[in-house]
Design a protein that fits this description.
The chain is an all-alpha fold. The protein has a single domain, classed as Phosphate transport system protein phou homolog 2, domain 2 (Methane Monooxygenase Hydroxylase, Chain G, domain 1), CATH 1.20.58. It has 9 helices and no strands. The N terminus is likely disordered.
Length: 223
């Protein structure tokens, strides 16, 4: 291999976006899982959990492939630690989606009807955060062709800025949902409350990691 090719290697940005798309595919499975919980279709939950586990594994394979094929020396279009930080945040998003599926699988939990709409609204806000990150990540790939500058860079930075606002909305909905859950504690019982909280925390964590991933994207653009 010529020394120049060895030094600069192949840009990992395209593969980084493949991984981001796979992670988003994993996160998207949360919607049918929640709908199955509302319908109390526990057999479907088991089927969907297997699907989430498979997609999360595929995302892991992509992550390892990216790390294995990073140039061994230092000439990357972005800083190695920032690229790795973005990968780690994405990995956690997929992990939390899988955790959500496992929580649903291990107990046939009845979701109180008074909470159905609130859980669905909260989930949609989590998807808003995740979707905004995905859009920014896909557009980030195009920035590599313009040296991470110009109008394209400003557009991605605006998307990343919006991530914070969208994640704040998710946090607010999570607090409101938690308050409503505990008002129903006498009807629901402490064990179900515990499971509801676990579900809430996993969904919140997806949104939090999406915002963190956006911070690494911003750092790669601003370097």
């Amino acid at each position: 291999m010529p020394i120049i090719q060895e030094l600069f290697g192949k840009s990992p940005i395209g593969h980084l976006m493949e991984h981001a798309l796979k992670v988003h595919e994993c996160v998207e499975q949360v919607r049918p899982l929640l709908n199955a919980l509302i319908a109390e279709d526990y057999e479907l939950i088991h089927t969907l959990q297997d699907k989430v586990s498979r997609i999360e594994y595929e995302a892991d394979l992509l992550k390892h492939d990216i790390r294995d094929h990073l140039p061994r020396r230092f000439f990357l279009p972005v800083k190695r630690e920032e690229l790795d930080g973005f990968l780690q945040c994405q990995e956690k998003m997929a992990d939390y989606a899988e955790d959500f599926s496992v929580i649903l699988m291990i107990r046939k939990t009845h979701l109180h009807p008074a909470l159905h709409a609130d859980f669905l609204a909260f989930l949609e806000q989590v998807f808003q955060v995740s979707g905004t990150l995905l859009t920014a990540a896909v557009e980030f790939r195009n920035l590599a062709e313009v040296s991470f500058s110009g109008a394209e860079a400003r557009m991605v930075l605006d998307l990343i800025k919006n991530l914070g606002q969208e994640e704040w909305k998710a946090d607010r909905l999570a607090r409101e949902l938690s308050i409503k859950m505990y008002k129903l504690e006498d009807e629901i019982g402490p064990i179900s409350i515990m499971f509801y909280e676990k579900l809430l925390l996993k969904l919140s964590a997806i949104a939090n990691e999406a915002e963190n991933a956006g911070d690494f994207l911003r750092a790669m653009i601003d370097q």
